[in-house]
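Moderator note: this is an archived Q&A kept for reference. The question asked for a predicted structure of one protein chain; the sequence and the answer are reproduced below.
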Amino acid sequence: MAGIYLHLPFCSSFCLYCDFYSEVNESTLRRGYLDALKAEISERANYFAGVLPDTIYMGGGTPSLFDPEEIAELADLLRDGFKITHLREFTLEANPDDITPQKLEGWRRAGVDRLSIGVQSFFDDHLAWMRRRHSSSQAINAFKMARKADYNNISLDLIFGFEGLSEEQWRHNIEQLTALSPEHISCYQMSIEPGSELALLADAGRYKEPSEEICADQYSILQKLLEDAGYRQYEISNFARPGREALHNASYWERVPYLGLGASAHSFDGRRCRYRNIADIKSYIAAMGANDFAQIRKEEILSDDDIFNEQIMLGLRKVSGLSLSSLESSRLAKIKPVLNHLTNTGEIISEGDIIRIPAERMFVSDGIMQQLFL
């Protein structure tokens, strides 16, 4: 099991809260970027050392800005370059206002079988404030178009925990989402990221984050309403119909190998090496054009403590929890007193070899995990 993430960092405009690396969409730069991606795909052909990738995820940025022919070209390059014979999942991120019957058909021909659509809200004033390009009606119509085009694996995103979102509005968003009945739902709390427009507003006193209590209440409402609608929470931010969990994202939480291609993409060899590509499109294009691969990539070697902490963090993100037998025994012994305390206080549930964070504590899971780090 292994995955490929391909980063397409182009946007028509930038969302208020976003700090992901991207550039304004421009055809000449985009063509140069695609050529650079071809070079990196060729250079990384032996990355998996005999393991065949079985998931592809095209994220951004806004991959849906790309022509279907460009998506198909990249998909063919990945299949040929990595000798892919079977894919369990091929996801493409899409903005609602980019979705058309023609693009849906083209993506399908390219092999895309799962869409991740960024809805974020069903209130147009919230979408305008977020600098989203679509309206609520466009989001609904985009979903219906995808269904008509026979996409039967669709994930929709919502955002909560921002100033001006009332409980009534949040309930409406969830109910509208479940009425569409996607296979998968991802929900994220808005955060103030350095360098984002939202951070500038906060620094100027023009935005104030809701209290932790309000955000926790919204998260609890989310859990309850989605459970009532037949969705199973399987990770802090992710919910799915049974059997429709995101296969590619599971590679991150399970620490299996994945390869990130493109500017600012990250990779992991499944053991102790992580890599990150330079977060600058023009520098990436120049380096790939000169076959100067060392210039685009930095390597991080994880220590034994780093690996242990990662296993704790990634394992406890999952509702199913973490197997204690997967942890190195001498390091596990060091955290036993803290683990026993967290179990006694109910912040951790221990069931034989498995430890997990109860659903009602998932909102504060980061603080629980950090107590177990070395």
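Archived answer notes: Residues 150 and 279 are 36 Å apart (CA to CA).
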